[in-house]
Amino acid sequence: VSRFLLTTSYYQLSVQNWFSLHRLQLLYNHSVQATFNATRIHAPATYSYHCDHVSSLQRYDALLIPSSENDLSQLWEVTFIDFQIQGFNIQEGHFAYAKDCASFFSPAILMGLVMSLILLLVLAYALHMLIHLKSLDRHYEGKASPAYFAQMKDNDMGDEKEPLRNSGNESYELRNKQFGKIYI
User: Fold this and answer.
1) Which of 3, 17, 89, 134 is the most exposed place for a label (fewest CB within 10 A)?
2) Is this prediction's pTM over 0.90?
3) Are residues 38 and 62 in the same domain?
4) What's the total number of domains in the chain?
């Protein structure tokens, strides 16, 4: 026989009553054989509590913990499969809507969030690179500046420059069209 010790309490933060399973006692021949303290088994009083596994085993997240090391509860392994409990406000013999023990961040959800973050970072980097992309025309404009040709000797270029008439500025045009125009 199993005995569940439930309590109810009012929490101002949630503005409602909650019930908690505090203790599970296993009885045999009307005497207590083992006592387990329950952890994290609570729900609003108008709901029921549901969990796939409520167990004293670590592989099922051990929601039931032996109450002391001196009693016989260390010898017991207790596991409830598809566990659902409602202590208060039971109507027509049916469970109310269940608060499930599954966490919001299961491994699948956590991996989906991590992958989304990685893809978002890749997209942000790609947009950053596109914004700072410079065209090739601007790159080659710098190469054709007068400073680029300053290393050439004037006597080598003497026969290739031809004066142009411009509004007071002295400028020259190269006869060899592969270099383009240079203004000084």
Assistant:
1) 134
2) no
3) yes
4) 2
